[in-house]
Structures
1.
Amino acid sequence: MSSAVELLSDIRQSSERRPFEVLKLAEPLLNTGKISRVDDVWLVYEQVFTAAIDEGQIELAKTILTILHKRFNDSQRVRRLYGMVNEAVGHPSEAKQLYQQMLDADETNVLASKRLVALLKAEGHTKEAISQLVTYLDTHANDFEAWLELCSLYLRHNLYPQAAFCVEEIILQQPANHYFHLCYAEICYTMGNLGTALKEYLRVVELSTDNVRGFYGVKLVADRILELGNLSKKEQQDAGLADAPQPATLQRLSQLATERLVHAYNSAGETSKKTAEAWLKE
């Protein structure tokens, strides 16, 4: 029993769902009644409930929910599980009503807010999901995962400035994560803000020295700035190029990025190397 309990604990602590594995580990504990002797029995019950929902085992989920309700009949956390059951059996309006009631009682309820966002998103109501997330982040501004979700929803509607703002907030919280700098660079490039895009791509390769997308971004932006030639002062400001590197520096950056890309593809074989070299010369 101890090994199964330890594995379930490891899965919880890693924030992974792995529903099939969870149910397999929990099955003997449930069948023998040994689950009642587990120290974190209520956390395990909730974990199994979520796995049962994920695997479509609704009756098992309902059985566990009954056990949890008897122990925590006034718990908002348990009410959220009722909402998840309603979602799973195809009653989204009932789930939405429940989540809204929970938020009316406590607008800072994290669990209800996140479930409501997930439900609105699943129904295709992205504008309502955006509104709910904005309200949530007014109170929980340090939740970088919520900022990332909001960024994704903004990008669905091509709202690039709003998406860029979200990533800026994420970078403030996760400054050493090259992935977020890469996201920001790509959004800035899409908006035509070449100066910031170049800085962020350079930040990517500083943090992740073998990042192919980062080096390709450096080359792409450096070459694009060189192609633009002499722009007016207004055009330079619009493209974020007021303090852009000199042409010689841009050429050197493009050359270095090309060398790194060719080196990266070199390990894949001579054919891949030649293909990369031809592609980069286009």
2.
Amino acid sequence: MNSKLLSSHNIQEPESSVLYIVGTPIGNLNDLSPRALNILKKVELIACEDTRQTKKILQKFDFKNNLISFNKHNYLSKIPKIINYLNASKSIALVSDAGMPLVCDPGEELVKDAKSKNIKIVCIPGPCAAISALVTSGMSSSKFTFEGFLPKKKSEREKILFEISKNEKTTIIFEAPHRLRKLLFELKVFCGGQREIQVSRELTKKFEEHIGDNIDKVIDFFDGREVIGEITIVIKGCNKKIKNIEFNQLELKKELHELVKAGLSLSSASKYLARKKNLTKKIVYNSY
């Protein structure tokens, strides 16, 4: 490797009228890069998801700067103000609470607006929970799908879970700790209990943990445990050879649930579908 690439001369000074997208630590504050630190110290303004979280970085590295709140609750009103700053030849850094901005936060609207006005955008890369979990999972990392947080609306949520169940690529999901068990059981319904997954929590922190096995065993692991810390889940892609089998099982399960919801008993619905699909009643019944 060319030693010049590692030279301190590459720690750039902020330019005027530039929006810097700055990656910040996802847990361990020592993961902040020298280049990111230099930019955060010297820009005129830092737009942050939560000023209290960003102040921890300022306190850790002993510097002060101007902070402005920029989050999902106020971003529409703050975008014009930030654009005005940039048009007034000021440099601004955009940060999230942790990791790379724009990943599951409203920063993309600001970037779209800035680009439409020919404002220069520069990314200062940093830690990312999705990639950190992926590369520790041992699953295929050459092709993967990132879903972020799944939607709460049932129909939209089930549509994505169904897509995940058929996807041959590795899938990455974010989840809050108090909703982890619900999601694990949903994944079991759609993907089957034997699908390989890894649940990563407290990434880069002292108690970092990666729980990896099939869905059934991961559910057992968390049974009765208090779940703490933001969660990243990595799901192995569907085996191409059994993809059609898994698809049929999922269709069978959905039909059975619909019949029971319509008023048939589980026994009667199983008997009906067994005849229709030329299967044993036991196989249909156990798919519920």
3.
Amino acid sequence: MRIDPMRIDWLLSVRERLPPFLASLRRGDQPGAYNPCPHGSILAGEQASLGFSCFAKKILDALGLWESLPEGERNAWLEFIRAYQRPDGTFVDPALLAGIARPVPTWRARLKRRLKGQAIPDPITDAILAETKQAIATLAASGQSPRYPYAGFPHDALALENRLKSLDWHHPWSAGAKTAILALFVQSQGPRLPEVDTPLLRQTLIRFLASKADPESGAYFAPPTPPARGQLINGAMKVLNALEWLEEPIHHPERLIDTCLLQGPPPAGCHVVDWIYVLHRAARQTGHRRAEIEGHLVDIMDRIRLHQAADGGFSYLPGQAQSGYYGATISRGLNEGDIHGTCLLTWGLAMCVELLAWDLPGWKPFRA
């Protein structure tokens, strides 16, 4: 696509301004310890650090700046992340978990889920699994592994298939996210566990996801009725992330592109980046509607720019830093950049730059 000097200049300025923004979030002298935002951190945001540390490293990965840090700082940072791992293999940030409320479901809700063979949602367990995935993926980006292999996933094909079937695929955003976690665990931790037949588990995941692929929309869900658009696109993003870890292609990339291009994303960091990610992954498999995709990506940069705060970072919502993280309150939601929004939108910009084939230094998408 034709180079756009105005947007190129802005992207260059983003790469210059983000390191000072990250420096403003540093918590003391410990490499890897970060606050979620410059001024509005409260409650869990003042003490939790595992997720924020992973976000900060991913920002540097997306900008191509991680390797420019001194080796001693990089090693200390990675050890800081590793230090959150417990002997059972999970990564746990006690300060985050202390801020997450654990609601008690009604008996009707418990009965309904039991009849469907679905587990009762537990925000604490979900946060631990998500943070464990995040930490393992962050370490993997530097060719590193956790101290202990994580073994808390099904080790045989039948148990894995039953776990996948128990997820609510009428709501693929959640089901896809949990499947992406399983895919990472199987692919990265399975080979470290002698009792696990990793190739068999990979094929189980691959076959199951193929059964959820909708040839009309290209998305992944339980038939026959497609879910709401947010569930459709965000759920597809999570499944595509699982397929990326499994090193498998998308099933219907052309139809998925058509579905994405029907409507742009809502103005929130996760929606914007999920939309970009789906187009980015699909367009790497097919040239279908490539010129339109490139035009939309250039336009979406202008929407991302609306998230940029005066401090150089990006806020999760336009003009408002992220206030909640896995149900824990982390900030007052001021008009400032936040580390999660900055991570997501920097990643989104890196995917745009790669797909547009703009020759800019440093920018490189990471694997979530």
4.
Amino acid sequence: MVARSPVSDASMTAIHRASSAMATHASARVESRHAWFSDLAADDRSWIGVIAQDGIRSFLGWLRHPSVDDSRAIDIFANAPRELARRITLEQTLDLLRTVIEVVEEEAPQHARAEERAAVREAVLRYAREVAFGAAHVYARAAESRGAWDARLESLVVDAVVRGEPDESLGSRVNALGWAEVRGVTVVVGSSPAGGESSVVDPLRRAARHAGLEVLVSVEGRRMIAIIGPVTDPIEAATTLAGHFGPGPVVCGPKVPHLYAAGRSARDAIRGYEAAPAAPQLPRPTRSDDLLAARAVAGDDKARRALASIATGTLDVGSPLGDTARTYLRTGSLEGTARELFVHANTVRYRLGRILDATDLDLTDTHDAFALRLAIMFADLEAGRRAPRPRGDVGL
């Protein structure tokens, strides 16, 4: 719908002739009034000048042919590069527009006929409203595009971390996501809640921001992987976000120094998550190291080696703690262990305490007892493989 212009051709011509001077005055006022302008790079300052000129030119076109659904208010941003929306905020853009409109409101009516000046001022105010809506539209569109791009970057980074195969592009992607300086990282794995990806991931992001954490998230089918930092205690960070995962186990890997080392944490967390159904008694979330026994049963060689290292030395055959652990695991009681070892029950109780201090496993707990039984078995198997063959044993 096109309305009739409120000013005559003569006034339009006069205002048009003054448009370059108005743009120059507007740019000067922006520079003098807004401190953030001087902090911009020279290229960005020049683009703001272009926006001011386009805004005035667009206003003149709108004034000649007013339209209810005209898109000129949005088009004044068309020539500026998209990156400019990243470097100046919506608030700064509105400050810029207010300053330009202020200059146009002061100067444009002076070049119109006396009886048309009020109409020009009213037109300026109406157009200012359209420009404000146009700026909001541009920033909303940029935010939507940036959000989709950031989500894609996140997915690529998480995938590279999980695969443990970083390529030369990982560094630039990490920098783009603002993770280059994040120190103290853990990876948390759980099931993905029902719903679309945005409805699943956005609440997790909000919870992380509220807790002062950064998070990179990837939904892979029914599994959701979150890289979290900066963390001091991985289980504390995982507990903060566990409610945003789907039902079932939530497993966090060990803390690593930075994102580039997060592959170790991711592999442990994923292996723990896959083995977690074998240890339903463990809390949610749980550490991947608390699932060493289940992981070893599931075929995780790293978990088997970790268990063997727990028993090696401390619980070797013939050592007081080793004999106590083996006997207690076989008898299941303090008294039975004490009788077999010819020691007092309090001595057995003391040794069990020392075993707990040395291995972080409590033999009076069934889960820990099973883990320590496996640890001793794997350590003995490894010792057997390293033992020298008797003379004359040439094998098959």
